[in-house]
Write a structure and sequence with these properties.
This protein is α/β, with parallel strands linked by helices. The chain has two domains: about 170 residues, Rossmann fold (3-Layer(aba) Sandwich); about 250 residues, Rossmann fold, CATH 3.40.50.720. It is about 45% helix and about 15% strand. The strands form two sheets. The chain has an eight-stranded mixed β-sheet, sandwiched between helices. The termini are far apart. The structure holds nicotinamide-adenine-dinucleotide (NAD).
Length: about 475
């Protein structure tokens, strides 16, 4: 099949690479010339500066020039194309609705080219972007307005998880196709022939509107589940000493009806999708005059979770951030990615600076350049001189008064030793990911340890004097609100 992938970001590039692995002739197209130049170079560092996914560079290297081609101009390519996948960014606007400007620009450009193509074979335009329900119809109208002939539209939402994009695209749990005609289903069956009738992959054909809704429902349900663990399990274990989070997880999820995925406590879910998609669904339901109380609560719980531990440090540990130096470990929204979008670290920095922190010493194994770009941006210039970037966790911790672990990078599991070797107590460890399994040795050595999903731990005599196992009043009122 001849395929064009429009937009070569976190979704488009892995999608194009994996489609080319199956022998399709794939043209990966982007308007960002620097990005395309980087991909064409085949150089690992260059490619990973844009999209850093395990297995991606190898896949690109193997297929480029044979089945995979990069371009900033598709005017000569549209002829004879069977399918065009739209993988454009659809960021949230201030009011929560989806900003469709990138998507619409690409759609209009495509429509002009397709209207003038010479070969009038059937072409299917496929939405892989997460777009408001009804956008496939909108795309159809755009094509008709431009006079495009012999085309179909389809919705094929992307469910990949960043950090696992290549493996996830090679073996998705499901492929959802929303289309109107048997002809278009047929074209997409050929595109995805390796997944049709697969014993373990559900291949679902439905209407475009259902497919679009499946994507929003799936993402908001995952966020709801994460927020349940943070907002209920986490709060209980943070309020009542002696609740063991790991046992809680095991006990609750030992029920086939309850998922183990997401049954952990963290500093909230970040990334480009969860927050954006729930806001968009709230907007769409509000527009339809429907209640969105549940979704609004989930969104609020998740956003507050990102900095909640900083409030706890003040209320529970009595820590005064004013003029202190804080090490921030982990900047990307999760491990194995350089993506900073909606990362907890962004909110953590704002919260720390608002509390008068003198300096933030940041470290991330992968996202340092992305973070620098973000905090160097013109509207954030007032922040950058208070953030310094360091080559290792040890270097970031050195000279700090407290530490916030924001990302679940595996290398942070050994932090207790690094802390002991680098700083002396008093020193507060805020563990937003429960990454320090041997926290007890830290506590014995005199450090204060404040994890999500657990009470403040510090050398025994003092902690008993202060909390005596009681739920702090601010936390107690929050528990009431949640109840
Ligand atoms: N990132 C994820 O994990 C993920 C998962 C599932 C779904 N999605 C959805 O997929 C879509 C794409 O997300 P992403 O993370 O890949 O975005 P991204 O920002 O990483 O990539 C978008 C790409 O589109 C390009 N682009 C913008 N306008 C263009 C135009 N007119 N023509 C050609 N290219 C253009 C940009 O230069 C960029 O390379 C979004 O709707 C997102 O919600 C993302």
């Amino acid at each position: 099949m001849k395929i064009i992938v429009v937009g070569t970001g976190f979704v488009g590039l892995p999608h194009a690479a994996v489609l080319s692995e199956y022998g399709h002739e794939v043209y990966a197209y982007d308007i960002d010339h620097k990005r395309i130049k980087a991909y064409k170079s085949g150089d690992r560092e260059e490619i990973e500066r844009y999209v850093n996914e395990p297995g991606l560079v190898a896949s690109v290297a193997e297929n480029m020039g044979r089945y995979l081609f990069f371009t900033t101009d598709i005017s000569e390519i549209v002829d004879g194309t069977d399918a065009v996948f739209l993988c454009l960014n659809t960021p949230p606007k201030r009011d929560g609705s989806s900003d469709l400007s990138y998507y619409l620009n690409a759609a209009h450009h495509l429509a002009e080219l397709l209207a003038n193509r010479e070969q009038k074979n059937r072409v299917v335009l496929v939405n892989k972007s997460t777009v408001p329900v009804g956008t496939a119809r909108l795309l159809e109208n755009i094509m008709e307005e431009h006079g495009v002939e012999n085309f179909g539209v389809a919705s094929n939402p992307e469910f990949l998880a960043q950090g696992n994009a290549i493996a996830g695209s090679r073996r998705p749990d499901r492929v959802v196709i929303g289309a109107d005609s048997e002809e278009d289903f047929g074209i997409l069956r050929r595109v995805y022939s390796q997944f049709v009738n697969h014993v373990r992959i559900r291949y679902l054909e439905t209407t475009p509107e259902t497919a679009e809704t499946i994507k929003y429902m799936a993402n908001t349900l995952l966020l709801t589940y994460i927020s349940f663990w943070n907002g209920v399990g986490g709060r209980m274990a943070e309020s009542v000493p002696n609740i063991r989070m790991e046992d809680l997880k095991l006990g609750v999820t030992s029920d086939d009806r309850i998922s183990t995925w997401g049954s952990y406590v963290s500093n909230g879910a970040g990334g480009s999708c969860f927050g954006k998609d729930i806001q968009s669904l709230i907007y769409q339901l509000n527009n339809a005059g429907r209640s969105t109380d549940l979704l609004q609560a989930v969104y609020n719980i998740n956003e507050y979770q990102k900095t909640y531990i900083i409030d706890r440090a003040v209320y529970e540990a009595g820590f005064n951030f004013n003029q202190k130096t804080v090490a921030l470990l982990g900047l990307a929204f999760k491990k194995r990615t350089n993506d900073m979008r909606d990362s907890a670290a962004l909110k953590v920095v704002e919260s720390l600076l608002a509390r008068g922190v003198k300096a933030i010493r940041a470290y991330d194994p992968l996202a340092m350049d992305d973070a620098r770009d973000f905090w160097f941006s013109p509207d954030k210039n007032h922040l950058f001189d208070r953030i310094t970037y360091h080559a290792s966790a040890k270097e970031a911790i050195s000279g700090s008064d407290a530490l916030y672990v924001s990302t679940d990078w595996e290398e942070f599991r050994g932090l207790s030793r690094t802390i002991e070797m680098t700083v002396k107590p008093p020193f507060l460890v805020m563990d937003g990911r429960r990454m320090i399994p041997d926290f007890e040795t830290l506590v014995k050595a005199g450090y204060e340890y404040l994890p999500v999903g657990g009470t403040l731990l510090k050398a025994k005599a003092e902690s008993q004097k202060r909390d005596n196992g009681k739920v702090p009043s601010k936390m107690a009122s929050e528990l009431e609100t949640l109840a």
